[in-house]
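Re: [help] complex structure
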Amino acid sequence: MQKPNYHIFVCTSSRPNGQQKGFCHTKAGVDVMARFMEEIDERGLGGEVFLTNTGCFGICEKGPVVVVYPDNVWYASVAPEDVGEIMDEHIEGGRVVGRLAL
Amino acid sequence: MQKPNYHIFVCTSSRPNGQQKGFCHTKAGVDVMARFMEEIDERGLGGEVFLTNTGCFGICEKGPVVVVYPDNVWYASVAPEDVGEIMDEHIEGGRVVGRLAL
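Output below.
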């Protein structure tokens, strides 16, 4: 299989048992996920940038949490309107967005 | 925050909207997740090895899927009884488990 250059993980508070509770879910994690999906699609990056929703990362007070691998960069309190900047700067520009990074 | 040395992602087919459908869920992804949780705990690796359940990785026919970052190593058709080997070889030994890797 083609592996991703970047893999973006977005907490949507999904529990392994299918329950959905928690902070990122109530704090727009699902909207952040949707925005990333749109941006990746609009930029034609679907083959090289993967996007996956996740369960809890354990730092709920900093949610919605977005993690970018293989860089191991963690973004906190991400709003849907931050997604374009993460795409421009980090995913397309290779520069970490300092104001959001943990 | 302390970032992980290894971050293990296990597909449990959790949808962003809280639904849980798909192959990894029906094919023991949840049991694989539980086994990793036990192994990480028993080995005292909780501070350096993170474990997160995810939604679909898009290769359902190869599920349950486990992805290890920052290595960008993808394991396919992982059974609960494979988890100890991934922990021994990859997470503690630094060697990819070739028979399971994509």
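The interface with chain A takes residues 1, 3-4, 7, 9, 12, 14-20, 25, 29-30, 33-34, 50, 52-59, 67, 69-72, 74, 102 of chain B (CB under 8 Å).
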